[in-house]
Structure formats: structure tokens, C-alpha cells
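If your schedule permits, I should be very grateful for your opinion on a structural question. I have a record of one protein: its chain in single-letter code and its fold written as C-alpha cells. Kindly check, if you would, that the fold set down in the C-alpha cells agrees with what the sequence suggests. I remain grateful for any guidance, and I place the record below:

***
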Amino acid sequence: MTPRNNFTLSLCLLLLLSACSPATDSSNTSPQWKADQTLSFIDQKPQSKIYKVTDIKGKPIIGATVYLLGEQITTDRLGQFVVPVPWTHPATLSIEALGYIRQSYFNLTPDITTSFILPNEDPIPSQILFGETVHWEGKITEKDGNADIALVTPLFERKNLFYSHQETMMSQDIDYINILGQTFPIPSNISIPKQKEKYGIFTFTLEKPIFRIHTTQKEVPLMAVRATAPVGRLKNPEDTIKIINSMLVISKGYQIGQAGITNMIPMDHVDLASKFGVIAPELPKNYVLVAVPISKNAQLYEAHDAKVLDSKEGATLFIPATGADSVLLNMTHKDRLREQALSSALVPFQPKLTYSLLSLVDRPQLKNHHLQLQVPSTTNDILPVGTYVSLSLVSYKTVQQGQMEYTQRLWEFYAPGWISDLEIPDLPYDDHQKLRWEVTYLGSTQTINSTEILAHPQEIFNRITHATSNRLDM
């Protein structure tokens, strides 16, 4: 993958920088769960209850393999199965089928759910959406020392907000612009209208009107955020935080992007003229908080602005006159804004309120078929919900300028509560493949029953308010 300097990061962070019911004892208790660990025993006959495996659209999956209590069970033509042995204690249930992401549920009991959903395999980004941002006429003040730019991205799902790998929110393909004889890399999803700018006594032309976005779909809702930034800041890309905080967002535009045509996104749909303030909580040394106002758009989410705050520092962000639904807070290292450890919160906006975050966690470690995890510190106002662990295949795709990294989930693990140890079976994958383990601890300011992560695992990210995550590349 082609390296990018901090100038690339600063532009992308403009969008997003653009996770059991509560225990009565708030101590940091970390259960270690193993496959089929017996917690209790009741003598009973084999289960006659019927269970069903479907895809995300509710279509039965025929021939799926279910692993439970040492048994290997196959679903019938209706996607159904029964358990042939007594299911008398909480156990691990795993399901796999060709073309789907394998799912595992820890500490599952027979009464929690009778329906299991397998997500389809993650597709490879094969579509390219391209176009221009338009309606800039009369909106650009030339030679004022400020560059006018637009960042174009798809709207995103709520779950993506809690991922540590935020590079999924930006184009990894790169274009280049020239400023006074120096060449700078810039993400391909940045659009810059033609303009004459000034730096010191020098005048130059800045132009990159075309944006390009790699996606898995032929039709995607797109948004573009217009902003200005001092040219002098852009010529010092190593000062990432100052670049981000010097940017002034102005307006936004929307368009349903389609592959195969030139998409035109107007930059005058929504003005970002209203303000709200946010205050960072006390942060660990050398860590910062990235604050992003968020609004829901149909079933997706969009960001409006972004600022980087030091411990207990306040900032003003710009939003539409209709307001913002929530504020997204990402805590990470100030010198490594894209480091793998990330603590996130998506909470309702309350003016001038200091927010709480989960502590950062270390990378997971794989030793002797056990994934060893660091449980976050408990807090009084963030309740443990569950643990989500994923195993993904990391691959690379050749793009216009170098290579683009993408991930395909192979396996997802769900457990109620926060766990510190996960027993891993033999993995049927090539040693030469690059694999990525990622752990995300889920929390909420509201009580969520611990069984919800097992009964409705695909919906749990729509209910949590906090997450802290890290990953291990192998």
C-alpha cells in the first residue's frame, strides 16, 4: 500500500477522524470462557426444540454446519436443526456455511434464541464511483491564503463508528497536487475546484476537480463536505492537529452515486452555520480526543465537522441549523491518530458537557490456541454489554497509485460481558495469509441484558454507546 503523509490523514479526519446486565460489583472481573465450559448441570432429555439458520434477508441456509457440545449438525432444506444430545449448560455454538461469515456464540443456553443469522462474505471493492463537486460559483475567494476543498465519502453504518480501522472511511487510492513546485499526495476522494491562491508573495493555481471512490456497490449515497484551510498549514503536513483544527467547514451536498457515470455533487444543499461546544474529559498523557458531530440520515449516518482536543480542552464545532443528533468521540494517541488502539463513544449531544470514555486496551495476544485480551477498566456510568472479536483476511488490490488494503471477515465471536481469554480452535487458513484479530469491548450508558448480544448479535452495535478496541496483525 502506498504510504501517505499526515496531509492525507488531516483531510480524511475532516469527516470521521472520519463499542449482561450491569454487575452489582464494579470491580474489574474478567471471566475466562472456553468452548463448552460447564457452568451448571441439570439432568434432562435431548432437546426437541427446532432452531433455524438464515441469511440476513431471512432466507433459510441449507447445509450449514453447526458445532455444539462436540456434535456436528447439518441444517435441513428449511435451514433447521435440532440438538441430538442434552443441552444442559451454557456452551459455545458455532455455525459455518459456504459463502457466509462463520459465527460463534459463547455461553449460549438453549432458551436465549432459536434463530441464527449468517452474514454474507464481505465482497471485494470492485466498483469505482467518480465525479466532481459543483455549484462553487461565487463561493470561492481567491488569493486569500485559504484553499477551498471538498471531501466526498459514502454515508456510513453505525457499526463503522466503533471500528478501530477507520481507514475504511477514506479512499486509499492517491492522487497528487502541486503547490509551488512541491508534490503532495492527496486521497482520491478529495475534490478541489480550480482556484488561484496565494502564499506569501507567490500566487499559484490549485486544482483537482475529480474525486474517485472504491466501493462494493454500484449505487451508494454520497455526501461532500466543503471546507477551507490555510495554505500555509497544508505546506506543513507534519503538523496534523493544527491542520485539522484550522479547517473551517462551510456547507454540504448530497447525491446518490452511481458507477459508470460522472456524478455531480452540489455543494449548496446544507449550510453548516450553527455551533455547539464540546469539552474533552481528562485524558491519559499524550492522548487526544477527536470530536465529530453526527446526524442520522435515513438508516445511515453522516458527520459535519471535526476538532482535536487535548485533555479538558473545549472546542466549537459547526453543524446544520437542524442540529446534530449525537457527538462521536474518538480517543487516540496524539502522535499516531490512526493507531490501532481506539476508544469511542457515540452519545446524545449535550452542550458543554464533559463526556466519559472507556479506557484503551492493549493488543490481543495469541498464545497456545488462546486469544488473551485486556479488559477495560470499569466505570460507574458505562455498563459492560459484551465482547466482539473478529478474524479477518487482509488483502491488497492494485489501484491507480499503488495498492489498497481491504479486509474480509472470516469469523465473528460474540460473548456477553467482558472476557479476558478466548479459546481458539485450529484455524483452516494458510500460514502465508495475512490475518487480523480485532477485539472490541462494548458498553452502554443504559442497561442492556447480557443475552442481547447472543440473541441479536447483528443489532448490538445499534444499541451500544461506547466501545474500546485494538487489533493484532499476523
The CA atoms of residues 294 and 303 lie 5 Å apart.
